[in-house]
Amino acid sequence: MIHCLDAFLDPVMPVMLGGKDVLANVGEEAKDKERSDSVDVSRKAWSVLRERKVHSDGLIEEVIQEDRTAWNELFRTVDKIFVERGRPADLDEYDHPILDQVFASINRSANAFPPLSIRFDLKLRYFWRQFVRSKKERGAYNVNAAKKRNDGIDFGLFDYLALPAFVVTVDRGFLEGITDISSFQRSWIRKPSSL
To answer: Are 177 and 148 in contact (CB under 8 A)?
Structure first.
């Protein structure tokens, strides 16, 4: 598998490091002056995977926790907007003026094509659906539930659709979790066998 992947990966940066790298690649974030360090870390990460020597010095858990914290913070941020708007009872999982406001406000650069609102279509729609589900009186989505602990990590995978790119996974919950969302990017989440 690793030998096959070698043919497809960027030789300069074989492992995409995260959100800022994605935004830099689509021209929405200034290239980091420490970019050479990012490239070095990326190459080392790929080398570790190729050698099948995975070391955990706490860094992995730290990065995972950052994703979990960011996911929870996103819910708190949107909840503030929800409260400011008087806690509207007419929340729709797929369409709402607050969601429209998010789409309109996400575009950072007027010159970017396509804009972030398009690049993050599935990401924004998925988050909105989960937020609305968290407001249900019965069977609400609980962002702090132990079973939902890694949802913030999975949410980070949507960033790569901005490149554009396929996200390849065998996680049935992740794949099934987007089937009801109407987005042109939904087909970009794939099982390895579908490639």
So the answer is: no
And the tokens for 130? Answer: 């989960």
Residue 124 region, left (φ>0) first, then alpha (ψ -120 to 50), else beta?
alpha
pLDDT given for residue 163 in this prediction:
87
pLDDT of residue 101: 81
One-letter amino acid of 47: S
Which SS3 state, helix, strand or coil, does residue 37 take? helix
In angstroms, the CA 175 to CA 168 distance is 10
Alpha helices in 51-150 (DSSP H): 59-84, 97-105, 116-119, 121-134
- Contact at 8 Å (CB) between 107 and 142? no
Q: How far is CA 186 from the centre of its chain?
A: 13
Distance CA(118)–CA(104), nearest Å, equals: 10
* 130/142 Cα distance (integer angstroms): 9
